Fold this sequence. Notes:
Layout: E1 8-12, H1 16-27, E2 31-35, E3 47-49, H2 53-57, E4 62-65, H3 69-76, E5 84-87, H4 94-100, E6 106-111, E7 121-126, H5 132-139, E8 143-147, H6 154-162, H7 164-181, H8 186-210, H9 216-222, H10 229-239, H11 242-262
Parallel strand pairs: 1-2, 1-4, 2-3, 4-5, 5-6, 7-8
Antiparallel strand pairs: 6-7
Helix pairs in contact: 6-11, 7-8
GO molecular function: pyrroline-5-carboxylate reductase activity
Domain Pyrroline-5-carboxylate reductase dimerisation: 151-260
Protein name: Pyrroline-5-carboxylate reductase
Amino acid sequence: MAHTPFKSVGMVGLGKMGGAMAKALITQGTKVFAFDPHLKESPIEGVQMVTTLDSLEKEAGLFVIAVKPGLVEPVLKEFQKPAIFISIAAGISHSQLVSSAPKGSTCVRVMPNLPLVANRGAMGYYCEDQAVTHAERLLYGMGESVRISKESLMDTVTGLSGSGPAYVLTFLQAMAEGGLQEGLSYEEALGLAMETIEGTLVYFRELRAKDHALHPMEVRNWVTSPGGTTIHGLDALERGGFSTAVRDAIRRATERSKELGKG
Length: 263
């Protein structure tokens, strides 16, 4: 079925995430209006700035709330009429959105991540059945979006993909430093590390398209020869607690998302 973009969307906040969404929407032909008290003019070509929330409310029927968690509820309470509200704030529950928005509004909770800037976001969203179409229309073309069945798992989405780019970049830097330590220049090591990470993911995605049940460890075994370099490297990772540390990072980030929701 052909994608039908929204005619107009209102943005509250034009930070990295809000700005990335605005840019993607403009590319699809949507008119984007934005209110951000920290900006006098739009940093994104095609976005029309307004000076008040009242003015924004007159321009659209769907609004993306892209502000810090503590500002989501106060902002929603400023709106006067029912609309579709999409919140991208960590920790703010669907019930908080509904109770703060004008009565009769439709609310969607979305957790995007930084690659959204390159239209490669990994986004989880939670909403009631009647709002699914709105969410999918908004997020179309921005990356991978997954409807989450239990709202409690949105905190896990935050800990996994929301915070995930920071984990990947930390791993990237560690690989580059490892190459540097062993004699490569930093640029040589960084270039090799970036292409290794990206190339591996592209390859694994292609394999999974043919065999959806394929497990990452099975592919890992293809390059892990008995007594070879890779098994020794993997042994060092596990002696350093690599897998456990990654799982713990996701768990702690998930816990923090829950804490943010409690205010």
